[in-house]
Specification:
Pfam family, one: MscL
Main location: membrane
Radius of gyration: 32 Å
GO molecular function: mechanosensitive monoatomic ion channel activity
Helix content: 55-70%
CATH class: Mainly Alpha
Protein name: Large-conductance mechanosensitive channel
Structural class: mainly alpha
InterPro entries: Mechanosensitive_channel_CS (IPR019823), MS_channel (IPR001185), MSC/AndL (IPR037673), MscL_channel (IPR036019)
Strand content: under 5%
CATH superfamily: Large-conductance mechanosensitive channel, MscL, domain 1
C-alpha cells in the first residue's frame, strides 16, 4: 500500500503540479509585497498617479478627459511572474530533475545510444531494398508479381 502511494507521488507530473500550486500561491504574496514596496515607487518616480491611483503615462482623451495607461500594474505583474517562476524553477524543478537522474542511474537506465530512424530514413531504406531486389532478378519497384503489365 505504501509502495503504491510512493510510486504515485514520485511521478513527475504530480510533483510538478503540487509544487506549482503550493509554492506559487505562497510565494506570490511575498513577491507582490516586494514589488509593491520597491518597484512601484520607482515607477512612480517617473509618472504621477492619476485620481484612481494608476501609475503610467497620461494623455488627453477625445473629450478632453485624462486617460492613464496603467504601466505600473503591468510591470508589477511581469516582475511578480518572473520572480515566482525563477524561484520555483531553481528551488524545486532543478533538484527534482537531479533526483530523477540519480534514481534512473541507480536503476541502471541508460539513454539510447542510437536514436530511432525517422520516417523519411525508413522510406529511403525500403526504396533501396526494392531496387536491390529488382536488380537481383526480382520484381521491379512498383509492380506486383503475376499482375498484368500496363502499357
Amino acid at each position: 500500500m505504501l509502495q503504491g502511494f510512493k510510486d504515485f507521488i514520485m511521478r513527475g507530473n504530480v510533483i510538478d503540479l503540487a509544487v506549482a500550486v503550493v509554492i506559487g500561491g505562497a510565494f506570490t504574496a511575498v513577491v507582490n509585497a516586494i514589488v509593491a514596496s520597491i518597484i512601484t515607487p520607482i515607477v512612480a518616480l517617473f509618472y504621477q498617479p492619476d485620481a484612481s491611483g494608476n501609475i503610467g503615462p497620461t494623455i488627453n482623451g477625445i473629450y478632453g478627459q485624462p486617460v492613464t495607461f496603467p504601466l505600473g500594474d503591468l510591470i508589477t505583474a511581469i516582475i511578480s511572474f518572473l520572480a515566482v517562476a525563477l524561484v520555483v524553477y531553481f528551488v524545486f524543478v532543478v533538484p527534482m530533475n537531479r533526483f530523477k537522474e540519480r534514481q534512473a542511474a541507480k536503476a541502471g537506465v541508460v539513454e539510447d545510444a542510437e536514436p530511432l530512424p525517422t520516417e523519411a530514413e525508413l522510406l529511403v531504406q525500403i526504396r533501396d531494398l526494392l531496387e536491390q531486389n529488382a536488380a537481383a532478378g526480382g520484381t521491379a519497384p512498383g509492380t506486383v508479381p503475376g499482375a498484368p503489365r500496363l502499357p
